[in-house]
């Protein structure tokens, strides 16, 4: 029996795959490589190249590898771009999830851990986001993730009515950073850490968008969590479902306090040894001063813990960036 990781050749997915292996769990990967990398998948892990929109491919993968549960990370993940490409976003994230659930039902696979997003909250008017905070997504990406949660919950109810079971939970998180190994790195063209580190490597000066927010140092405060910590909780969630232990439908994997953009810049200078003063640009429209989530519920049920400091996050990302560009 194995767990299927959709999107397992991506930055987060590949870390989840390795966390499964470290826990002694069998795993199989399906990934279209639209943003993932075949080299991120260990040689001894079965890899199926293809999209979850291909129902036949998904069904044969579930059957051929005796899959007992799915960790679903595959999807279009760029919130900003989703505004200009809503149809692609919904196709990948909503139709893809529906297709996956359909094939899971056909093959009797009754467990799923869904990689959701804190983008489902939009811009919450609270100091600390909890699972009870109302959802108001502000992009097609955030909306598609919320619809994915609804699809899974509705399919679970349908399975129960039919005398079956679909055990599930959804994990919401903000900014995932760092690397557990220099072989795996964030290749997103939109995320802050790779943008800052690549800029420094090229001899440029990173930029802060606004330094006059109502925060301790005037820059935006966000949740940043280390990818290894995140991957660990995905595996714990999967193991809980497999053991029959009930989980909440949704968990936030949050830091509880957050860090500012200025703090990230300061630590980047310290870690890289490159002394720089970031440029300050005007605020970007729609950027809230602070978005931070509580991880208390996940700590109770999923072993969630911030095991890595901000220094660890930057240092591991820098080591991976140097390996990649070297």
TrEMBL record:
SUPFAM superfamilies: NAD(P)-binding Rossmann-fold domains. Its EC number is 5.1.3.2. InterPro entries: Epimerase_deHydtase, NAD(P)-bd_dom_sf, UDP_G4E. The keyword Isomerase applies. Its cofactor is NAD(+). Pathway: Carbohydrate metabolism; galactose metabolism. GO terms for biological process: galactose catabolic process via UDP-galactose, Leloir pathway. Keywords: Carbohydrate metabolism, Isomerase, NAD. Residues 3-254 form the NAD-dependent epimerase/dehydratase domain. It catalyses: UDP-alpha-D-glucose = UDP-alpha-D-galactose. GO terms for molecular function: UDP-glucose 4-epimerase activity. It holds the Pfam family Epimerase. The keyword Phosphoprotein does not apply. It is an enzyme of class 5 (isomerase). PANTHER family: UDP-ARABINOSE 4-EPIMERASE 1, UDP-GLUCOSE 4-EPIMERASE. Belongs to the NAD(P)-dependent epimerase/dehydratase family. This is UDP-glucose 4-epimerase.
């Amino acid at each position: 029996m194995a767990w299927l990781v959709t999107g397992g050749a991506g930055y987060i997915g590949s870390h989840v795959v390795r966390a499964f292996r470290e826990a002694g769990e069998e795993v199989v990967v399906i990934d279209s490589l639209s943003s993932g990398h075949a080299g991120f998948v260990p040689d001894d892990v079965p890899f199926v190249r293809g999209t979850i929109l291909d129902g036949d491919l998904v069904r044969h993968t579930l059957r051929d590898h005796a899959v007992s549960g799915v960790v679903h990370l595959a999807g279009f993940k760029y919130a900003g771009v989703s505004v200009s490409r809503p149809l692609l976003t919904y196709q990948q994230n909503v139709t893809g999830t529906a297709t996956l659930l359909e094939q899971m039902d056909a093959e009797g696979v009754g467990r799923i851990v869904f990689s959701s997003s804190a983008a489902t909250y939009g811009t919450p008017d609270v100091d600390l986001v909890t699972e009870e905070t109302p959802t108001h997504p502000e992009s097609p990406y955030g909306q598609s993730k919320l619809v994915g949660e609804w699809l899974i919950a509705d399919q679970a109810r349908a399975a129960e009515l039919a005398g079956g079971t679909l055990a599930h939970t959804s994990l919401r998180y903000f900014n995932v950073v760092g690397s557990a190994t220099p072989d795996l790195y964030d290749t997103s063209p939109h995320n802050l850490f790779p943008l800052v580190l690549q800029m420094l490597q090229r001899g440029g000066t990173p930029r802060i968008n606004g330094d006059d927010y109502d925060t301790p140092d005037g820059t935006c405060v966000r949740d940043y969590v280390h990818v290894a910590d995140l991957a660990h909780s995905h595996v714990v969630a999967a193991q809980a479902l497999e053991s029959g232990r009930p989980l909440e439908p949704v968990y936030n994997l949050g830091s509880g306090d957050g860090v500012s953009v200025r703090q990230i810049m300061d630590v980047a200078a310290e870690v890289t040894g490159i002394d720089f003063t970031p440029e300050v640009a005007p605020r970007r429209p729609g950027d809230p001063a602070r978005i931070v989530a509580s991880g208390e519920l996940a700590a109770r049920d999923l072993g969630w813990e911030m095991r890595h400091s901000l220094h660890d996050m930057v240092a591991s990302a820098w080591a991976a960036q140097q390996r990649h560009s070297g």
